[in-house]
What we know:
The chain is α/β, with parallel strands linked by helices. The chain folds into 4 domains: 4-216, Spore Coat Polysaccharide Biosynthesis Protein SpsA, Chain A; 253-333, no CATH class; 345-509, 3-Layer(aba) Sandwich (Rossmann fold), CATH 3.40.50; 527-571, no CATH class. The chain has 20 helices and 18 strands. The strands form 3 sheets. Strands 1, 2, 3, 4, 5, 6, 7, 8 and 9 form a 9-stranded mixed β-sheet that branches. Helix 16 links the parallel strand 14 and strand 15. Helix 7 (186-195) runs parallel beside helix 8. The protein is globular, with a radius of gyration of 29 Å. The termini are far apart.
Amino acid sequence: MPRFSVIVPVFRVQGFLRECLDSVLDQSYTDIEVIAVDDCSPDGCGAILDEYAAREPRLRVLHLPRNVGLGRARNAGMPYATGDYLLFLDSDDTLTPGALRAMADRLDETADPDVLVFDYARTYWWGGTRRNVLAQVLAEGGDGCFTAAEHPEILDLLMVAWNKVHRRAFVEREGFTFPPGYYEDTPWTFPVLLSAERIATLDRICLNYRQRRQGNILSTTSRKHFDIHDQYERVFAFVDSRPRLSSWRPFLHRKMGEHCLDILAKPDRLPASDKGEFFRRTAALFRKHKGGGPVPRELRVLQGGYVAYLARSRSGRLGAELGRRGLQVRKVAATRVKSGWSAAHEHRPRDPDLAVYSAFSHRGVLGDPGAIYHAARELAPHVRGVWVVREDQARLLPPGVEYVLPDSLGYRRVTARATYLINNVNWPDTLVKRAGSVHVHTHQGTPLKYMGADLRDKPGARHGFDVPQMLRRADRWDYSLVANRHSELVWDRAYPCHFTSLRTGSPRNDVLVRARPEDGAAVRARLGIPAGHRVVLYAPTRRDYVRGGLVDRIDLARFADDLGEGHTLLVR
């Protein structure tokens, strides 16, 4: 029987999954089993898990037939656990080196408590790290074990399952499972900590909690945040089923009010049209579970109406808002004319049959955008294609290609009204993405160097690049065309944005697949390649650390001589 069963629910994290698995399987403490639950992930996670399982006997993989969500994916893994303790690890987070050894030692010191709570650090996409701000609560836990009643500050920590290890016999005896929906950790963690007879703490950072650049699922705007009400109903139902826990009702009542108001106050959690309903449901739940004690001052707003809540919250924000507006005016002034023109077209309908193309910073009908343009003319001739081309390149365009010059009136008109925008570099900041428009980013090939967020800790390579600005531009992508599996993993990690990867290959390379023998012969003749010669192409990628990007790494003349007779060397 292993000491730890590490349960890892997996969904749409292919860019981070290997790092997560390696952080567990490379631990110096090896008395573990890992149960990875593929929650019907639509990306390459399932294949990565199978690859690891083929060479790692400690890893067991479950492939669920449909997506069930984080909580139920954890539930699916628990029946297969045989370890003394359960550790739930989210698949984009990582364990720190030596974490499992430290946990095992602490469990031995405290004679196998029901729950061990350990510390974590938030890690950010730009490379920053911040320790849990309530770390002192763990230090105050002492050398031995305690109950929540003896050390209630333990309930002030983040109510999540992944900063704890749970004794499996305790979990099975109490019948703990995760519910469906958002905030599934709330009706797990409160019952676990209130029921535990022996809790211990480990004042050590054992886990790196990855803060996604655009937040985790709880940071998205959705009506699913209404799930918090059902989750607290489950907490109160649990307490009501155990009379010895009734004294915790006032505490939980306060926690519920604070939690719900915090969700309501976040500007990006709830659709604006749903905030009034969320407030009213919260207030009803607050009244339903109110005991006989006084209501804390900060929660009295729940005893009034939504209009009163708005008046109070707006008055509190007014001073800060006035301070911010001065700064915003200065920032916006520089781009108001250009973006304002585009904003005016927000009131005009999008043209469903208009596509705007650009390639290599407006150099012409080139690359993947060019291949898509030519294919669209055959497959969707009703879609009008307009190219953005620099004036010095316009004369080189093939006959019949419609184009506009960058930053011209025509450019602003077509980019404001187009439904489809295809590019292999990012559009400028002045281009305002309209709701319902589709941005397709094709990239410029296979990434064999550092890109996007990977440049953040490479000061030499990122010279001249504004990484945050690059990522803000990438936020506009709806689709990312990927040439191969390697590229998909790199783009997912390097650009932590909400786009969908399309495994299409590089459209510009379709000609290589479809080429006929006579096509190849024509190219050879045009390049002057003797008949029967084997062609060797040397096409090095640009080096970010060299001005101009090109390096002379090899003696090309010697290379050509060494190839010998019957070879032709081509250099890009």
